[in-house]
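Review box. Two proteins, two foldings.
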Amino acid sequence: MAKSNKKNTAAVKTNANSSFSPAVIVTICIAAAILVGVIVWSVIAKQANDINNKTVMQVGDTEIKGLEFKYFYNASVSSFQSENSTLISYLGVDFSQDLSTQEYSSGMTWADYFSTRAQNSITEITLLYNEAVAKGYTLTDEDKASVDSEIKTLSDAISSLGYTVDYYLQAAYGQGVTTQVYKDIQYKVNLAQKYYQDLVGSYDYSEEDCENYYNENRLSYDTASFRSFVFKYEVPESVEEGDESYKDEARASANAMLEAITDEASFEAYLNENVLSDEEKESLSENFTLTQDSKHSTLSTEIADWLFDTSRVAGDKAVFDANNAFNVIYFISCGLDRYNTAEIRHIYIEAEEEEHDDSEEGAHEAAQAAALAKAHEEAEKIYEEWKGGAATSESFGDLAVTYSDGSSAANGGLVSNVVKNYFTVAEINDWIFDSRTPGDSALFDSDYGSHIVYYVADGEPYWMLSIKSTLASQEYNSYIENLKSTSGVTVDEELISQLAK
């Protein structure tokens, strides 16, 4: 029953934000795209080889040669293409042509944009790398083996496309970027990242620190829940100054509703009895007047300021003239959601369809149903195996390593700091945050397969995690800016311009 582990993000939302922004690592998923799309641009971009060994930047005492800049510049281009693949056609940029002749914004070309990104990455990585070396950091044999493994995986993938890895690296990152150059850069990046992780991991903030920051920035964290309905009015093409009679009917309707409502139930009842047509009642969704967890920044200023006023109490109501309508607002609540995150273990069994002829009517549906049934059956067997054994968090983790198709499998299925809506499967989210007790477990089916979830423990409050992340980011940015100012960074703009094309 054992099976190989493989990542699958269909059931779990992937966090696109990296904790280490400068590190740009080549991935197999973009290799083919680069070879078929970027390769032409990369090859015809004439960059003089003699610039490779010239100093184009200096970060403190470290000289950055053209070859290293070339790598980070082209890595920035490739990363941008991968991240924005669906938007490229709308951005007005042609990556097969010289980027220094294409405007990104007023006074800045696309080459300038990617050059700035590359310079920032190089500066940050170099500063961190130098700090790491000064503090005695080194890469372990395991760290180096990880880079070697990445290169081998890349080489295998590129070979399957009919190219050598050196040919790919030079086509993607510029002439002179060989496997050894790539490896050396990855060693530098990895050591910098190692130091970065320890640095940020050393930051510590108390609950009092978080409370103080929250009190100073309440509007960034509080959310409001309320009911609303709008009575629209048309603004005439021509109207005498000061004449607002065209608003009278909508204003009267809004005020009449305001006078009548006393609670949430009466809010909807009034609409059903006095405002909505039968057709509207059928077409509108349940609780269509309800807005939950809205941020201050998403609302019109006057309404937002009223809702987020600290004197507001449940049941307050008001009418606002905004956006060519009178808005009837009934206040429910406003404040900080102090819910705890969760620590769970997760075993995911992917529903893998067997090969079938899609031309046959119903073939896909039948294959899908069979795959889901098979996944459920396998998940049930695993679940029973766990319950029939030690039935502990550790034994669950062992089974996750053996059977799970989820991205957390190698870590025993452990997922920490799970927030609301982390899973795309609503039933799992609802179960996790329904007053769980450590040791609770359940099996769920989804459109992707089957999931066994084990509740390990409550995590930190979400609001504290969010604020700690902000405080850490601020402290780190201050640290980097201080390193920049004390170390000094110089750029040879003329040489850079020859490389950034």
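Next protein.
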Amino acid sequence: MSTKDYLEKDYYAVLGVPKTATADEIKKAYRKLARQYHPDTNQGDSVKEAKFKEISEANDILSDTKRRKEYDEARTLFGSGVGGQRPGGGGFPFDFGDLFGGTAGQQGGGSGGAGERLGDLFGGLFNRGGSSTGRTSSTTRPRRGQDIESEVTLTFTEAVEGSTVSLRLTSSAACKSCTGTGAKAGTTPRVCPTCEGTGAASRNLGNFAFSEPCRDCKGRGLIVDDPCPDCDGSGRAKSTRTIQARIPAGVGDGQRVKLKAKGAPGENGGPAGDLYIVTHVKAHAVFGRTGDNLTITVPVTFSEAALGAEIKVPILKGLPVTLRIPAGTPNGRTFRVRGRGVTRKDGTKGDLLASVEVLVPETLDEKSRDLLTEFSTATAGDDPRAELIQRARSE
């Protein structure tokens, strides 16, 4: 992609978010579009595949704080053109791909920041009629592979304890038929005679000479006379692979896990991109979760709550633990069982928060009814609502 295309393309519009969108809004918009246009769910649909690449490109820029800032600053700086507007009000009177040497907007980003691109800008701007020989185009430099995002659904226990999952990933990689050269098997590319293999050419504009990607080899530095039929000479093809990914213990629903260098392979010896896995956690029939603590509601009888008791409480994995509840325990009181919660990053564990729920029997036999009637008679002088009524009257 030329820098002109990079600056003129509205990545916010691609994701359907305003320029003021937060990181969460951008992430939500990308996920929604990615599910809609992902190649795995649209096999053979080249239009949706192209749309998926476009929204992935937009997400790569806008989800990275540094790259988003550079993108916004570049569009603000050059959005109205250099040295004035075109007739009719259009921006970009110069080809910014020429100015920046085609470095901006490259997938994966690499290490080239705004300072490096501006160095390319002025290095080309004040090259007064000089040759571009010896200047290497960014397309022939090692380039970092694209980041990939995938999703996985975990059980409650897998999320708390950690799990290894199998993921099927689809990304761009070197074409297997031509090993990335772009040339048909049995043939080899030749060095571009126009740019002498640099991938860059110089265009003279009066007192200035601007460096631009070579038009004959499109910046690759090589000419493919007999292109590979599988990749049409691009050297890149869609690759599907299955990997085993370790999800760390303690992940939450909707959390984004980063696995470094597990994304798309790089080009020209560049490093691989990263893999981001969005986790979806199923609910548990017994346990809940609050931060690093697990929660559970434990039923107790009226007599256990009134007289006190030792009760068995289940934990997520392993044998139940014994919990002692004191006499006079009210309904809803929460007890803490240390070290039986979610595993943290430092290896320690949160707690299990057990809340008691006093059960009221739906039916009573005659003996139980007589005993409760006797108890009610013995405690008839204790009105639990007397204080409540008194406070209500005093207000």
